[in-house]
Amino acid sequence: MPGPTVGWTVDPSIYGDTKTRLTTGWTRDDFHGTGCIDIRCPGFVQVNKEIPLGAYISPLSVYNGVQYGMNFLLIRDTSTSNWWLILREDMKSIGYWPKEIFTTLSDHANWLSFGGVAGYFGSNSKMPPMGSGHLPFEGANKSFIFFKIKNINSNSEWVDLPAKDVSPNSHSQCHGLGSFIETKTSYGNMFYFGGPGGC
After folding, report:
1. CA–CA separation, 20 vs 42, rounded Å?
2. Is the per-residue pLDDT at 124 higher than 90?
3. What residues does the Neprosin PEP catalytic domain cover (predicted)?
4. 21-27/83-87 β-pairing
């Protein structure tokens, strides 16, 4: 699936440690032949020097304790057609993906993907944890959560992504995926996911 990606990662093969880091990516073909993570090759243009890509994130949430989150906005600039990444809490622009790298994208997104990816190298390795390392059924303050999931409609209005338009999909036996829930609370529409890995 072509397009930009944003989130956080733990990747010793890239960063040389096990810290949690802010990351972006882009691809035109699901990373089979094109794409890049952070700013390792031409693509994403960083404009904010206070929030560098690859910087480690701190503080982190504590199991059954204090929770922290990140609120991102991905939006297409109608004047330039570039796709912008904005940290929504302060509406800080982090950077953008130039329109030229997405040769097959239309002027709007027709598919959104939320979730995680976990993997390992070597035949003796095991699948690493994902999210908090705890399964979705553990719920609030324990399992990893995506919440306030919204999109911008054709009238430029923020709307909650409805459950009827969501197709849950999990390929892992080491992690879990909870139901997509329309909470009608400050959490908005949300789901839990993740797990301990180890298989």
Report:
1. 23
2. no
3. 1-199
4. unpaired
